[in-house]
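FORM 7B: Structural annotation worksheet

SECTION A. Query
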Amino acid sequence: MRFECQPGCTKCCEQQGFVYLTEADIVRLADHLNLTTPDFEARYVFRTKNQRRLRVPRHANCEFLESGGCRVHLAKPTQCRTFPYWPELLDSRQAWHKAGKGCPGIGKGELIQIELANRAAEEMRTAHPFLYR
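SECTION B. Predicted structure
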């Protein structure tokens, strides 16, 4: 399997869907934006009983996506950081190839060591177990 982010590409960030957050993501993002954790949560987080996710209006992109890329790239959430090494993409060759149709970095670059990809997938499973029951 090959993957290499392409310069200037933001295709993964332009996809519709939720960005789920861990408590550590929230603290890291708040710190990166020089906000208190409660202020960051009030402004950017939608919380349910078991989940936390970025507030994104329906049919809109992530608020942190700008023309030059991700405004919080250095502190981005686990879900963003581990893409495309999500369990559902590693577990299915078909899903990997389908993701490659929307991600120009899939299939490019050096071969990826499967152990590194599996570690990222496990980080995603651990961070968001409700997605992988």
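SECTION C. Observations
Strands lie at 2-3, 45-47, 52-54, 65-66, 69-70, 106-111. Residues 2-128 form one domain.

SECTION D. Sign-off
Analyst initials: ____
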